[in-house]
Amino acid sequence: MLRVALRGIRAHLVRFLLSLLAVALGVAFVAGTFSLRTMMSSTFSGIVDAAAPADAYLRPPGGGAFTAEGGTGSTGTVPRALAAEVAEVDGVAHAIPEVQGAIVLVGADGTAVQSTQAPSMAFPYVTEDPAIEVVEGRGPSAPDEVALETATLASSGFAIGDATQVVVGGQVTDVEIVGRVDMGGPMAGATIVLVEPETGYALFAPDGGVGDIAVYAQDGTTAEQLVDRLGALTSADVEAVTGQELRDENKAAIDEMLGFVTTFLLVFAAIALFVGAFIISNTFAMSVRQRMREFALLRAVGASPAQVFTSILVQAAAVGLIGSALGVAGGLGLVVGLKAVLGAVGMDLAGSIPVDAATVVVSLVVGTVVSVLAAAVPARRAALVPPVEAMRDEVTVPERSIRVRAVAGLVLTGLGAAGVAAATLNSGPDTMDAALGAGAAAVLLGVLMLAPGMARGVLGVLAWPFVRAIRPVGRLARGNVVRNPRRTASTAGALMIGMALVGAVSVIAVSAQQSVAGVVESQTNADLVLRSATFDIPKGAITDVAALSEVGRSDVFAAAALPVTLDGDDAAGTPYVAGVADDLFDRTIEAETVDGDLASLADGEAVVQESAAEEYGWAVGDTLVVTGPRGPQDLTVGAVFSTNVLGAAVVVRTEVLDGLVPPEQQLVDTLMVSAADGVAVADLKNAVAEAVSPYVVVSVLTQEEFVSQLADQVNQVLVILYALLGLSVVIAVLGIVNTLALSVIERTREIGLLRAVGLGRLQLAGTVVIESVLTAVFGTVVGLVVGVSLAATLPTVYADDGLSELVIPWGSLGAMLALAVVVGVLAALWPATRAARMRVLDAVSYE
Amino acid sequence: MRALAGVDVDFGRGELTAIMGPSGSGKSTLMHCMAGLDRSDAGSVVVDGLEVSGMRERQLTRLRRDRLGFVFQAFNLVPTLTALENITLPLDIARRPVDRAHLDAVVQAVGLADRLDHKPTELSGGQQQRVACARALVSRPAVVFADEPTGNLDSTSSGEVLGFLRRSVDDLGQSVVMVTHDPTAASYAHRVLFLADGRLVGEVTDPTPDSVLAALTALRPAPAPAGAVG
Q1: Cβ distance A506 to A718 under 8 Å?
Q2: Cβ contact (<8 Å) for B89 and A756?
Q3: Count of CB contacts below 8 A, A vs B?
Q4: Which of A170, A683, A818, B172 is the most buried (most CB within 10 A)?
Q5: What pLDDT was estimated at residue A352?
Q6: Is A552 exposed, middle or buried (0-12, 13-18, 19+ CB in 10 A)?
Q7: How far apart, in whole angstroms, are the C-alpha atoms of residue B79 and residue A88?
């Protein structure tokens, strides 16, 4: 029987190649996802190890965890002077106070050296620090000297000895590049500048408090011994940990961050595999149906049902295994390509593509098991064919009723819709996010199950214009797509899922754009918005702008992420606390007062965002304990407000924030500027743009430009989603090609008959094309309806979070529909050609 | 190896002609050549005054659509269309208007007036073949080719289908060429031609089942079991 099974694969090679492709695609995504994750994880682990190479650390209790922003979120510090005492401890080789800060390096092209979202950081260059190795030139030894990390030097376009400028501590400084250093690993695109130590400590540790003290042991002293001996120097504000502990903490934090990305990618891999399984089971169902007589013959000559069943499963396993192997190779290829692309945009990932056994085994097993499972149902049917069927001309396979599936789908859709409705009606609490997510997933899955039941009705409507316009081809095509609704629905499944996602996301994106635009226009009175590519506007730029005669008013939005505790409660969050001018709410921003009085801001009280107040349970009159590097402060909540212009949860007057956080450590992400009386906005813009040009990273935007910049950010998200849609379109095209090619083979006789009674080749090809287009449009229409209706509920749920308007992008939806037609035509090309080339005589003559 | 050699035959208008012969005698090939489904290497086929042998695929399609009708042994109907839609299919393909009176006459003749809205799967084998006959006749073709039209039917249904084909010749003035291995079926014809090894070997006019059987027996050196022909 094994020989019969394997010969069968060889005899029906084209058919099996299509299944092979389906498996390979599904598995490629799984393998690619896993190895991408491994690669990212190992890259970041490398960075973590490079960033914390010491044997032990003294740090603020529980703090000092790796933060991508460069330590601005740190809540406490260690006195720098402690390093001298540490150095005296027995077994300590070096004790290095570590601190870092934001810096802007002006590159050879006059713009800031920065890649994508990676941070730009400065460190003091401490000669004895074993983590820093000068590989060329020398370390900086004067305030106007810097050394650059290898990758940074390469992307800056400079050579050692060149002069440039940096913006650090809010000032533009002329510097000379004196050396190139290595930090012990790839830095994933971060821009790293080393400055002369005393300059660095003065800038980043003005109070004498550093982030941590890295302690290196002498030979023969273990990290544990070191921590024991350092115990004498610890206090309530300083703790000692081994380097390994710190690195483990940091890695855990990174894995958590990457966990989201992995989940996201795995969801797509699962969808790809799910759709791949559709295609695989479709392929086997059809190939089994065509070979029913062969199986009946095998049964007639004495094969048992179990043997027939096994022979089909053996074929499926062979296809699954080979397809998975191809898929693993394809997935790794995908990652190689992705790495090259990321490398090209400056995101330097770890050198080798990880081919770990786990990825390969999981991918092979998943692909093979899915294939075998997908083939099991048709195989069972084939095994139960009575041998007498072999004698008959036409072997009929009873179609299972789609009623069970339709009922299950209906129940699932109903439950999902109920979940979504519940979330819509009780907007607000976090638990509703889960209800919404689960509800949406249930609706999508339910509709997928319902699709065969809906196919007849929906396709009838969609086919109507074809039936009317193109006689008799339209009617023939309609007949073919509704003949087997289950098959049509499965074939359209990939597009359904992809289009549901795209439909939902484009509605959300456009609604978000519109909401933001509405907010910016109605809630701010400023003429210009200044932002920084490094998310921190240099202090010098702020003073320079404020000094301009054209400027009537400038508002600084300085912020820091600080632990905020409701008095008497110990559950702390670290939301952003913003410091603003006392009269901000009267002049520049129009906020809705929910409770209390916004004027209390001037009295030193805190005013809080409505969404944060709900989340943390704050109310007017409560006392919040806010802890900054300069110590804790009690603040009374004076008012609750609602606006979408300010991102910060807690707003205090500038003086209060300064009392919590030294101004050097505050981030200024936005500066709003209004013109003085009689100054035109265009003149104001010119003056401000000239004033900030030395600072390189500051962009000056009018309200309209600001809105369109926000829109661009949304569009970037859309580009990623369209790329993923592209994948689902590829799978969909292959699925449709697969189904059509097989159904053309299956309908050989019918096609012969049609040709015999006079159907022309073009008419026949037209029938196949219309079938294909109908299938693609069916998937697209159902998917878009599901996606758009799910997304349409969001503005009700998230109205408080700024998504206030519902906009349905009819243009994009129309484009998607047009895309579906193109997909349909493309997918039909090969099967239609095959059908048209079929010889009439072969088709009508019976053996 | 040649399927046909030196076959020179004319089929008269307004006649039901049957072609008989043992398996491999070339009777199907002869019909496929005449119908433009197969090509002859040499010689010529003329249908309704048109030279078929040299036609291109497009011309053949037009020929089949406008001048020929077909009835096959099985798979005669498109499963997704109703009986009526199947009958008018050739007209739909040619985008020709349906002649209601002629359609009604044909439908009446095959006795299917009450089954027109049914799908093929809801019809019996005999009914399906009658629908196929109606389809072959509705476009008033120059000639109808019937390839074992009763091969899958019981004797009652066979009688109905063959009676209808004969009436279509006698009453409607059609021309029918039928390939069969069944002497009873052949006896419905005006004329029976006998083929063996690709050659025309005999002819019987105004046949009866007995005269056909006698002619068949005469073709063979020794009588073969009845099931061996086909």
Answers
A1: yes
A2: no
A3: 83
A4: A170
A5: 59
A6: middle
A7: 95
Task: Write the CA distances from B217 to B38, B192, B194, integer angstroms.
Answer: 30, 14, 11
Q: Confidence class of residue A774 from pLDDT cuts 50, 70 and 90? A: very high
Residue with token string 């019918």:
A750
Rounded distance, CA A775 to CA B213, Å? 55
Of A478, A749, A758, the CB nearest to B65: A758
CA distance A785 to A796: 18
Residues of A in CB contact (< 8 Å) with B are 393-394, 471-472, 475-476, 478-480, 482-483, 749-750, 752-761, 763, 840-841, 844-846
The DSSP output letter for A743 is: H
Give mean pLDDT, residues A602-625.
84
Q: What is the mean pLDDT of residues A543-568?
A: 82
Token readout for B16 is 């039901």
Reading the block at residue A682, the tokens are 């265009």
Quote the CA–CA distance of B211 and A281 in Å, as a whole number: 57
Give the model confidence (pLDDT) of A692-716 as tens digits.
887 777 888 887 787 777 677 666 6
Cα–Cα distance between A39 and A269 in angstroms, integer?
Answer: 17
ipTM: 0.82
**Mean of all residue pLDDT scores within chain B:** 83
CATH superfamily of B16-78+143-228: P-loop containing nucleotide triphosphate hydrolases (3.40.50.300)
- CA max distance for chain B: 54
Burial of A220 from C-beta contacts in 10 A (0-12 / 13-18 / 19+): exposed
Does the distance separating the beta carbons of A483 and B89 come in below 8 Å?
Answer: no
Mean pLDDT of chain A: 79
CA distances from A689 to A628, A683, A710, B92, B99 (A): 34, 10, 20, 72, 82
| A420-424, A455-459, A738-742, A807-811: least confident range | A420-424
Q: From residue B167, give the alpha-carbon distance in Å to each of A745, B14, B15, B75, B162.
A: 38, 11, 11, 24, 9
Token code pair at residue A820: 């579906």
Q: Scanning the structure block, which residue is given the tokens 């000379």?
A: A176
**β partners of residue A559:** A578, A667
Model confidence pLDDT, tens digit, residues A235-264: 777 888 888 888 888 778 777 766 666 666
Contact B37, B61 (CB under 8 A): no
Confidence label for B157 from pLDDT (cuts 50, 70 and 90): confident
At residue A151, the 3 state secondary structure works out as helix
pTM of the model: 0.69
CA nearest to A121, candidates A196, A197, A68, A192: A192
Q: 3-class DSSP state for residue A632?
A: strand
What SS3 state is found at A419?
Answer: helix
Q: A747 vs chain B: nearest CA distance in angstroms? A: 10
- CB burial of residue B191 (10 Å; 0-12, 13-18, 19+): middle
SS3 B223: coil
Query: Could you say which DSSP state residue A187 is in?
Result: -
Mean pLDDT of A567-575: 66
DSSP symbol at A396: -
Provide the CA A303 distance to its chain's centre, in angstroms.
53
Those residues with Cβ within 8 angstroms of residue B100's Cβ, 6 or more apart along the chain or in another chain: none
How far is residue B12 CA from its own chain's centroid?
14
Query: How many Cα atoms are found within 13 Å in the side-chain-facing hemisphere of A439?
Result: 22
* A799 vs A438, more confident: A438
Q: Count the neighbouring beta carbons within 10 Å of the beta carbon of residue A605.
A: 22
| Average pLDDT over every residue of A735-741 | 82
Residue A475, min C-alpha distance to chain B (Å): 8
Q: What is the DSSP string of A207-274?
A: TSEESEEEEEEPTT--HHHHHHHHGGG--SS-EEEEHHHHHHHHHHHHHHHHHHHHHHHHHHHHHHHH
